[in-house]
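<purpose> Linking amino acid order to shape
<body> The protein record starts here
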Amino acid sequence: MSDAQATMGQPQKLKGFKRFYSLFRPSKADVRHADGKADKKTKKIIKGLTQVKAPEKERFIPVSYQSLVNQLGQADMWAEGESEQGKILMQDLNAWRHQSYRDRLNQLKDAYLTFSPDSDTLTAETYSDLELREKRHELMENMGKLLESANYERINKTNLDLLLSSDSPYGLRLHVDLDAFDDVIIYFRGAKTKIVEYRDWKWAYLKKKPVETPIFQRLFIALKLKPKEEQINELMIKEELPRKQAEKRVAKNLKLLPDGVTSQKIYLKLFKNIPQDDLEMMFPNTKVEFKLFDKLKLGLTAGGGTVAGLVGIVPKFLAAATLLNPITLITTLAGFIGLLVRQITKFFNQRNEYMMTLAQNLYFHNLANNRGVLTLLVDRAEEEDIKEEILLYTFLCRNRGQETNLNRAKTEIETFLKTNFNVDIEFDLEDAFSRLVRDGLIEKNGDNGYKILPPAQATNHVQRLWNGVLHKPDMV
């Protein structure tokens, strides 16, 4: 269990003044941060305690489809007289891949309809709990395959726990209860770093310093809440709590969720350029806590102001009581109450500033929600597939008739991308090869041999595939 989960699992028993006083005590997050003994040089370079690294070379091809077509359509990329036919083939293959992904998107949207929180259409189907569970698992499995096609990488449980226990570069202390979810599935594409300027407390926050911060260029999250009754039962078993106390805990945690969030739906989110240490911001049940520095600052200002106010008010109150002057008594008492309200309000204002920072980051980094996520991911997966296919087909076709193995084609493709676009990737050879074989543009001969169709024959073959779609018996 992560520190963030452990913190969420503690009962909140403090009330009144004791709860107010607890705001000044170091949080577990502060203690954890103090225990981290990163060397000074590292602290200057990386803001935060963790960094999930992408593979040494990513599969994602950060070049547009049209740019690749322009380069691959050059005459010197093909045998004599084949370049024009090669361009036609690339266009036809792109259209065919679009059709196959259109079918895939329709299947995903149909499967997601039961779990979509934004659905505005009625459905007559009803399912048992077992059927819903099976449909949910099937949907999640197909979502994973789609993300793999779009060249995303999954964040495993170990890295997730590390990220949720790290510091936020925005000055927030955030905690998430992962036990509240049936499903937490997170994928990313592109783990880079960017330079962000933060105000340095050593210079009284008047001067900024550049900090290299690890980010996810693209981040996908799928969440499915557990039913309320299941959360209560798990809490009773896990912490040996009486049912009434477990119900209060769960009810309090559910109040953190926005209105309308339910355990019957699956929530899909897609973000861009998210700091790795701010992953907690992406969850709907995030708890915001004060840092020790903020507690001390507010304690000194609020506490000092209250003490100073008391020093001035108490003599006036005693004098008014001695003289039995009711107007002075009421005025003095009202002033004291106003002082307390003003000082306590400072605490809530500070928390509101934190929440505003959270909301601003979500607003500007959000790409799509729920069904829109499916559409966007299908579009990205389709583009990745066609880019891989036209690259592999071109380099296999230009060398046909020679003793060219697939590994050599892979090397040539990676060199081509490096030379023409300054892009260093790990080309996904097996995936692209299997699709070209499946669609008949490459014919396998035995275990290791293959035969690739020339551009003219390949174009005719793709057109026959289209005819098969347009003239299905059930469409006549």
Remarks:
- Residues 3-57+121-287 form one domain.
- The mean pLDDT is 77.
- The first strand starts at residue 153 and ends at 154.
